[in-house]
Structure to design on (147 residues):
């Protein structure tokens, strides 16, 4: 019996299902979604759908060349490697992609195991230690005044 490290590919969609200069999100059982991008040259790329800066959804960004601009703060992230462009620093995980006969495949093992521990940063009251907004709690209640 011979074992290899070759990936098991999972069919995701057809290339034509991804808009040119756009993306498609792939949900995973664990972890954040994966964003699959298509540029105007026909290239297909996959990154974790999370900007390394503040966790913005890269799938909603603007694709240009082999980069995507994060919709939150316009950080430029390389589609080939997930690296932020200078002067910004950081990296988002990339995923192996295979395009064959017009179909897009991702590595099934990576989908199941790669970067499943990463989360989006939390903003708002939860970030300050409040689990949820409660109208009866003094720290979260809003007093109504008549004028």
């Amino acid at each position: 019996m011979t074992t290899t490290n070759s990936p098991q590919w999972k069919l995701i969609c057809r290339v034509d299902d991804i808009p040119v200069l756009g993306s498609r999100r792939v949900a995973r059982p664990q972890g954040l979604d994966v964003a699959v991008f298509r540029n105007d040259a026909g290239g297909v790329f996959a990154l974790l759908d999370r900007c390394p800066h503040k966790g913005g959804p890269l799938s909603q960004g603007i694709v240009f060349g082999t980069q995507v601009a994060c919709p939150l703060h316009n950080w430029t992230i390389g589609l080939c490697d997930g690296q932020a462009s200078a002067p910004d620093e950081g990296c988002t995980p990339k995923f192996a992609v295979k395009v064959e006969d017009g179909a897009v495949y991702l590595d099934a093992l990576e989908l199941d195991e790669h970067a499943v521990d990463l989360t989006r940063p939390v903003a708002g009251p939860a970030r300050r230690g409040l689990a949820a907004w409660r109208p009866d709690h003094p720290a979260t209640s809003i007093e109504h005044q008549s004028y």
